[in-house]
What we know:
Layout: H1 5-19, E1 25-27, E2 43-54, E3 61-74, H2 82-96, E4 122-125, E5 130-133, E6 139-152
Parallel strand pairs: 1-2
Antiparallel strand pairs: 2-3, 3-6, 4-6, 5-6
Amino acid sequence: MAFRRETYYAALFARLQARVPGITTWSRRHLQFSRIPAAAQPACLVLAASQDSVMETRLPTVWTLGADIVIWVRATGQEDSLDTVLNDLVDAVDAALLRDADEPLAGQLDPFRTSLGGLVKKISFAGPVDLNQREGAEEASVVIPIDMVVIGDNPAA
């Protein structure tokens, strides 16, 4: 079967959507913050960000597929701070990527993280989590970079 990148991004989106509570709006498309009404927030975007491969003759290609999880929140006056709301959502994303007790370990590079139903060899936060809150603003965002390591086809095999 041919390597299809969308399979992995769709699986990540479905996993997060099913396991991250408190998100009102979910999207795979980039949406402008100003176009998301307060009632539709918090909003979570799961965006394809990067794709890199390592190819060796007679071996399957190893792909690293990057995704950015962007979460936007707007103050409602009820939260302690927007940082608190964002940190709780980052924790929820982190927890959503943990391996279930009944999830098989075969071939996993990280025994503590999900394989997205056996699709990925490793999934992890891929660098700094970027929290953005302007002084005096009633809105904030976080960008969580994710890497998924997958084994694809090698047409040169």
